[in-house]
Design goal:
Number of strands of chain A: 6
Helix content of chain B: 25-40%
CATH superfamily of the largest domain in chain B: P-loop containing nucleotide triphosphate hydrolases
Distance between the termini of chain B: 69 Å
CATH architecture of the largest domain in chain B: 3-Layer(aba) Sandwich
CATH topology of chain A: NE0471 N-terminal domain-like
CATH class of chain A: Alpha Beta
Order of helices and strands of chain A: EEEHEEEH
CATH topology of the largest domain in chain B: Rossmann fold
Radius of gyration of chain B: 22 Å
Strand order of the largest sheet of chain B: 10-11-7-12-6-13-14-17
Shape of chain A: globular
CATH architecture of chain A: 2-Layer Sandwich
Oligomer: heterodimer
Number of helices of chain A: 2
Number of helices of chain B: 11
Number of domains of chain B: 2
Strand order of the largest sheet of chain A: 1-2-3
Structural class of chain A: alpha+beta
Strand content of chain B: 15-25%
Largest sheet of chain B: 8 strands, mixed
Distance between the termini of chain A: 31 Å
Helix content of chain A: 10-25%
Number of strands of chain B: 18
């Protein structure tokens, strides 16, 4: 497709704690919401100048859920987490990267 | 010999849309076939009223059907139904089929002039067109268009856009007295753009042309995040120094995954009225080079013509005031190329979701 090699074809809830995306290039992604929250790229969670993490990952419960998820333009999405945090913009590139990192740890 | 609908369809099947590269029958362009004795009539429903090859397609259809035995008369009615993203599920601008960014890396490349003339040219072809001036700090659209109806704010806070030359138009310039400037911090400027996207009664539009501010700043990012911009067109002048900035604009749309339709080169050459020779005042081939480098088509080259400026300054774009001028011709051809490439884009989305909102069951 024009404008990037992949886009979201389908987005869905796998279970209470897991988000699923089928990408247009055939890749299927799975993310535990707690993992997404721990990698939130917003300026509260990552220092904008030094890129130092400012969020202690151990404070995020493994069972974190969400209120909703919505697209941001054509390139990203926003998660409204159950704890109210919704400042992070997860680009498609970041999602793919987190998914790969998760897969390689298994 | 009796003419059948099947025979008509088979006669039309070899005809292809040159942009979409598929049979006009498979694309469902051929509709409402009526056969009465030797008389055959049908509609040719194109993907855009601005289709650059509409007459050629019509003529090809007439020839193909007229060649069938028993056919005495053929009538092909040209119609159009603009293809676009599915409208449901979009948060803002849900009645707009195509949102087209006209952008550049730097100012002074006749970007607003291009946006205005392309918008008017699309409207002249019969499309429903809106024009959003997103250049909050340097709005120039109100001056370039003869406004027939000023914008109005209704009691519930919804803004009715201005009407000008067949376009629905919105610009912060309508709300600032002449000679005054919008002196605002980034978040306020972005706030106005958000208002113009979500609070203006655009109605059903085939195309919303968005005149981007130059550069890659706050307003551009807001547009990329709040609207699922269908595609972007990059403007540049021919000289090399301007190309550095074009690369930045292209990179911005790559990052936000907005498809790039192509490059428009403005101020390409001047035709001497004494000798008729083309003079490349700002150098040659810049648009072609940057387009090739980015793997994009060059959508057109607009010649320098003082009438582009004088018409614009009086609210009469050159496509309206001097429609036979070569520059007007060039703008119409760019508009046609944009419309054609948008139609192709929609066939090529591979099932991608335009935008989504997912509720979570905890």
């Amino acid at each position: 497709m024009v404008g990037g090699s992949y886009a979201v074809r389908r987005i869905y809830q796998v279970d209470s704690h897991t988000l699923g995306i089928d990408w247009t290039d055939g890749v299927v992604g799975r993310w535990r919401l707690a993992e997404l929250r721990r990698h939130c790229p917003c300026a509260h969670c990552v220092d904008e100048w030094t890129r130092e993490p400012r969020l202690d990952p151990t404070t995020v419960s493994d069972d974190l859920t969400a209120k909703g998820i919505e697209s941001v333009g054509r390139y990203a999405l926003r998660v409204v987490f159950a704890d109210g945090h919704d400042a992070g913009i997860y680009t498609h590139a970041l999602l793919r990267e987190l998914d790969r990192a998760q897969a390689s740890r298994k | 010999m009796k003419v059948t609908e099947q025979a008509v369809i088979e006669a039309l099947r070899p005809i292809q849309d040159p942009d979409l590269r598929r049979s006009i029958v498979d694309l469902a362009f051929v509709q409402n076939i009526v056969i009465a004795g030797g008389r055959v009539a049908f509609d040719l429903v194109l993907t855009t009223p601005a289709c650059p090859v509409r007459e050629q397609l019509q003529a090809a259809c007439e020839r193909a059907v007229a060649a069938l035995p028993g056919v005495k008369e053929v009538a092909v009615a040209l119609k159009a139904e603009t293809r676009g993203a599915p409208l449901a599920g979009r948060k803002v601008l849900e009645t707009v089929r195509n949102i087209v960014a006209i952008a550049s890396g730097k100012g002074g490349v006749a970007k607003s002039t291009t946006a205005v003339n392309v918008a008017v040219a699309l409207a002249q072809s019969g499309a429903r067109v809106g024009l959003l001036d997103a250049d909050i700090y340097g709005p120039s659209v109100p001056m370039m268009l003869e406004v027939e109806e000023e914008p109005k704010m209704s009691a519930d806070g919804v803004i009715r856009p201005a009407l000008a030359l067949g376009l629905k138009v919105m610009s912060i310039g309508f709300f600032i007295p002449p000679g005054r400037a919008a002196i605002l911090r980034g978040p306020m400027a972005s706030g106005y753009v958000t208002q113009f996207l979500s609070n203006v009664e655009w109605g059903e539009l085939d195309y919303l042309i968005v005149d981007y501010p130059p550069g890659t700043g706050d307003i551009q990012l807001t547009l990329s995040q709040q609207a699922a911009v269908t595609a972007a067109v990059i403007c540049t002048t021919p000289q090399d120094i301007s190309l550095i900035d074009v690369r930045k604009a292209i990179a911005m749309f790559e990052t936000t995954k907005v498809p790039r339709l192509g490059v428009v080169e403005t101020m390409s050459y001047f035709v001497c009225d004494g000798c008729g020779k083309q003079h490349a005042l700002l150098g040659e081939g810049g648009g072609q080079r940057i387009a090739a480098e980015a793997g994009l088509p060059l959508l057109g080259q607009i010649p320098i013509d003082p009438r582009v400026v004088s018409g614009g300054d009086r609210g009469r774009p050159i496509v309206v005031e001097w429609p036979d001028a070569p520059a007007a011709e060039a703008y119409r051809s760019v508009a046609g190329a944009i419309a054609a490439r948008l139609s192709t884009l929609h066939l090529d989305q591979d099932g991608a979701l335009e935008s989504f909102s997912l509720g979570w069951n905890a």
